[in-house]
Each structure stands twice: as C-alpha cells, then as structure tokens.
Amino acid sequence: MNTLRRQLALGALALAGGCCCAILPAAAQAQAAYPARPISIVVSYPPGSDTDSIARMLGERLSQRLHQPVVVDNKPGAGGTLGNGFVGRAAPDGYTLLFTPNPFTTAPMVMRLSPAASYDVLHGFEPIIQIATQPLVLVAYPGVGAKSVPEMVAQARSGKALTYASPGAGSPMHIVGEWLNRAAGVKITHVPYRGVAPSVNDVVAGHVDTAWVTLGVVSQYTSQNRLIPLAIGDAKRSPLAPNVPTLVEAGYRDVVVGAWNGFFAPKGTPADLVRLLNGHLNEILKSPEVVAKLATFGALPVGGAPEVLAKTNANEYQVMGKLIKDLAITAD
C-alpha cells in the first residue's frame, strides 16, 4: 500500500512538473500568436480625411500580413485630442493603435484641456513608425494677382488687406502662416476652418485670398491653374512639386514647417509587439503601390525604426512649442 502511494505521489509530482513546464511555453506561444483577434486603428479625425484614408489603406495591407481584421475607429473631436487620449488610456496589448498627424504633438499646447482630457506627448505612448511626411503649400486664388511670396508680401506691405485660410486654429498651417507674418513684417489675417476641405473650397471660390494646406488636397486645382502655388513650407523643394519654391528661397530661411504622420501604441505595449508592427509597416512602405498612393495625398514615405518617430515627435515638441509660445498661438 505504501509502495502504491509512493508511486502515485511520484506520478502526481511528475505530472505537476510536466504541467509547469508546459505553462511557460504556452505563455510564450500566446505572445507569439499575436494577433489573436482584430486590431483597432484609432484615427482622431472624421472619415474621408487624408489621415483616415491613409490609415485605411495601411490597415488593409496590415490585415493581409497579420491574418486578422484591422479596423479603423474614427474618434474625432477636440482637435484630435479626444482620440489621442483614448489610445493613451487603452490597454497596452497591441490591439489598440493610434494613427495620427503631427497635431498630436501640438494640440495639447494650443488647447485648454483638463488634466483628464490631456495626454503626455513625449512619454505617454510607444512610437511604432513614422509613415510619411507631407509638405505644406501656400496657394492663392488667381484673382489675388500674386504669383510668388515676394509679390504677396509686397501687396500686404502696400496696404492691401489679405487673408489666409487654415484647417484650424493651432494647426501647423496656422503656425506657419503666423511665422511668415512675423518674418515678413506683415499682417495677413488668419481665417480658421474646421478641416481642410472647407478651407480649400473657400480659397478655390475666392472667399479667402490664400490658404496653407497639404499638397495632395490642392494638386487638382493647381494643375488646372484654379489655384496658384506660391511656396512650400519644407526646407527643400518637394519631389512631388519640384517647380514650387520654398519659403527659404523667398528669403525666409528660418520659416520651415511641414506635416508628418505615424503610428503610436499605448505606453507599456511590449517591445516585441512594437518591433513586429514596425517590421510589417516598413515592408508595406516598400510597396510601389503604397508609395504611389501616398503620393496622391502629397505624402512621401519615411519608415525606419521606432526611434525615428520618437525623434521627430520630440523635435516637433521643442521647436513648435517655442513657436506657439512666441506667436501666442491658441485654438480659441
């Protein structure tokens, strides 16, 4: 009897040991099995925007590679901070991602947010990958009569009342407009809109004189001479619009503002999941079809390690933060 009990006890210990050994690989397998369910890409802007359209294109290709649905979840409101904050508070499990343009960095600086509604721009998220850059372009209604920035500035200095549209107060387009005003010593009046589309519609109709926008949304109008491109906000000419000079060429060497977008995950998302997503998205950005599609939005692919996006975000925080303070930019 004692012998039988000893055998049973030894068998139980062996079984328990086997179970313990099996549990550890199971946990590793669960991590390796990511994703085991659909992934949500939060876009803090309405459907139909550039950001939304690019997110859907990338999500479709990411789904094909991960063999799980990747769904875009639009959470617009409060200048993008509503959706951004939602992702910042989400579980760090790789199933909730944020695809965002660079107002992600500046929106908390220009909006009066409660601590509960804000988020930590530099330390509250895990950078995954910078997807693209989008040059900002200054366009003019043909009836204004200016075909270059020097001509526009000369009109303003002579006393002509001019206006410029932006897709929103506190946006990069607003910041570059006010920076140019200060650098040129003029006062071209800012007219903020709620989004890119209405600002473009009104400059095409001649209700505002000029507008700062991303390149892709006005390419059809500039190609038809319905809008005149005056300058690019990047430091160098864009290969997507090589004939459009920069503000640097116009004599404003320090006035450089562009747009970018990228993927972030909630803080604490495992590093191996970040690397996995980064690898897939880098491969997606190598696709000629994706590069061509990005070009229709006036965007140029970037890619690289998560640190590239982290550096871009930190630089934006420092440079744009100082400008916002110096120029007294607010979203009011």
UniProtKB/TrEMBL annotation:
Keywords (A to Z) from UniProt: Signal
Question: Do you know which CDD domains this protein is assigned to?
Answer: PBP2_Bug_TTT
Q: Which Pfam families match?
A: TctC
Q: Which PROSITE patterns match?
A: PROKAR_LIPOPROTEIN
Question: Do you know which InterPro entries this protein is assigned to?
Answer: BUG, Bug_dom1
What PANTHER family does this protein map onto? BLR1237 PROTEIN (PTHR42928:SF5), TRICARBOXYLATE-BINDING PROTEIN (PTHR42928)
* Coiled-coil annotated spans: none
Q: What family does this chain come from, according to its entry?
A: Belongs to the UPF0065 (bug) family.
Q: Which residues form the signal peptide?
A: 1-32
Query: What's the source species' lineage?
Result: Bacteria, Pseudomonadati, Pseudomonadota, Betaproteobacteria, Burkholderiales
Q: Please give the name of this protein.
A: Tripartite tricarboxylate transporter substrate binding protein
